[in-house]
Design goal:
The protein is mainly β. 11% of the residues lie in helices and 45% in strands. The chain has a nine-stranded antiparallel β-sheet. Strands 2-3-4-5-6-7 form a six-stranded antiparallel β-sheet, with no helix packed on it. It has a five-stranded antiparallel β-sheet with strand order 14-21-20-17-16.
Length: 366
């Protein structure tokens, strides 16, 4: 594998866009939002994305074959803040490694951990070549230090191949401390929820493999009662969420289902949102270090998003719960771990092929 990096600094990002590289259909352009946040616009002939290199390496925006498939939110551009709910409109956020969800009473963790708004010390783009062909990369390294507890390096790399509509994420985690690192991870990937879509996935549709965590608002307001009643229905039949139907479902403010996936012979699990026209949003992940995936919904008057499959080490519950139930990975001193997942768009023909492939995975598990 060959990789030519283009390193950059925040000063490269100004009011006028600056082209950092261009190689055929692959390009990377640095710019700055009106809010002051740096954006890196990358694209090939099928995909167009904006990475926030200094804000958690978030992917703020993603478009495939001209279709805007990022969640609908109240944010039209990223805000210059590190408070999660004050800047929640992006397509993909890295979550972890000390925490991946809400903190329980007595815990002191930022929502979804330190990674969503991590300030990267190194960020770059570049052009690489391997056996699959030519690709564009956007990546960086975030070093996290916490006295007497943590010292790790987190290095994600987004790869966008020359003629592909599915992108790859390669992540290296390096434990730099002289003691073991117990870490948790989740990728919060927020697609546009398309009414009438079907969710197709390589997991068994039963209560053992699909565990609903109903949202409880408290009180007896119409909103609270509606989501409470729908949560009861999902507990009895989690597969009710397989077809998006805003008339019979309630995801206001949100709902989560923890899913244990079956993998293929290569150790990969697969999921799709098959849209009414037959094309699909796709997520695939290597289950070696990411054995689970969270299904997440947020469909309100102002938001419309679906986490088809959020690859994770555990569940949507607190750090205490993850630690007590073994939902974490352990790295010995000096060791590295690799995380791998893909995401993107499949045309109707490829979506049909993937659906058959998923059916075969589940047949082989029976």
């Amino acid at each position: 594998m060959e990789l030519t990096k283009v390193n950059f600094k925040p000063s490269f990002f100004g009011d006028r866009p600056m082209e950092l590289l261009c190689d055929g259909a692959l390009s990377a352009v640095a710019f700055r939002y009106e809010t002051g946040v740096c954006g890196l616009h990358i694209k090939n002939q099928h995909c167009s994305m904006v990475v926030l290199p200094y804000m958690g390496q978030q992917i703020w925006f993603a478009e495939f074959e001209g279709k805007k498939l990022t969640q609908r939110s109240i944010f039209d551009q990223p805000q210059a803040t590190t408070k999660f709910g004050d800047n929640y409109g992006g397509f993909l956020l890295h979550c972890g490694l000390t925490n991946i969800n809400c903190a329980e009473e007595g815990e002191d963790y930022p929502l979804h951990g330190e990674l969503p708004f991590a300030d990267y010390q190194e960020a770059y783009t570049g052009i690489g070549h391997d056996e699959k062909g030519k690709y564009l990369v956007a990546g960086g390294t975030f070093i996290y230090r916490n006295s007497q507890e943590y010292h790790y390096a987190y290095s994600p790399q987004l790869r966008l191949y020359d003629d592909a509509s599915v992108a790859e994420i390669h992540i290296d985690i390096h434990n730099r401390r002289g003691s073991s690192l117990d870490y948790m991870f989740m990728c919060h990937m927020n697609w546009l929820a398309v009414e009438g879509s079907r969710l197709v996935y390589s997991a068994k549709k039963d209560k053992e493999h699909m565990k609903v965590d109903p949202t409880e608002l408290g009180g007896d307001s119409a909103r609270a009662v509606r989501i409470r009643e729908y949560g009861k229905k999902l507990l009895e039949d989690p597969a009710l969420s397989d077809v998006l139907d805003s008339k019979t479902q309630c995801y206001d403010p949100e709902m989560c289902i923890n899913i244990c996936y079956e993998s293929d012979k290569k150790g990969w699990a697969h999921a799709m949102q098959v849209m009414p026209e037959g094309d699909a949003c796709y997520v695939g992940f290597c289950t070696k270090n990411l054995p689970y995936a969270l299904r997440w919904f947020c469909r309100t008057t102002d938001e419309d998003g679906v986490g088809i499959a959020l690859p994770t080490t555990g569940t949507n519950r607190s750090t205490v719960y993850q630690k007590e139930n073994g939902y974490y990975n352990t790295l010995i001193p000096g060791a590295h771990d690799s995380l791998r997942f893909d995401f993107g768009y499949l045309c109707k023909e490829k979506a049909q092929g993937m659906e058959h492939y998923i059916e075969d995975i589940l047949k082989n598990e029976d």
